[in-house]
């Protein structure tokens, strides 16, 4: 397999890291809460047959510039630039959690930009009968179990990567949380249901059966709202960030959909 390649693109005058690995047709990945502090085993599975391109959203690990984004439209246009500058326009797009909400927006508003779509427990909807958990209102020791069925997987994700400054690293993770809150507070509701009907790309919706952030019933709400051919698949023994809990199972489902 090819080496991991790091490049930088500029969004609104701020740098955003882009990671690329693998060979074959391009597959974009917009990460969930926590972003990508490190390259993941899940992405290695995808890179066995695809060129995986993972741009960092503003404010997440590897990127800055989130403080310039005041409205939901600001965020959507920043992600559109990120897709364009990363060479992902017209490619398959995978998004999880907060990244899933933006992937859905791209497919709805810029349909020519997304060939096929896969969403892993995306944000964007809210049902007051089954409210989402508020990830920004949690005590720090509650967060791992909220994010993953196996909380150790979250702890591993957000641990300082090799070469990270031990003083700076907690600040960087706080910035990622702040960026997500800027885009999705309160409770991840961006009224995305109004735009789901514009999505024509064939879509796979994956949901961890033990998602403690967004009730798995939200999968059906997404599937019902999307106009294009849509399929829902539950991931056993997985929480909100199913790609951390079950990297092999999620990669298999993703690759089968995009094949």
Automatic annotation (TrEMBL):
Protein name, as recorded: Alpha/beta hydrolase
Domain AB hydrolase-1: 33-247
InterPro entries per record: AB_hydrolase_1, AB_hydrolase_fold, AB_hydrolase_sf
GO MF annotation terms: hydrolase activity
Keyword Hydrolase: yes
Hydrolase found in the keyword field: yes
UniProt keyword annotations, A-Z: Hydrolase
Provenance organism: Reyranella soli
GO CC list: membrane
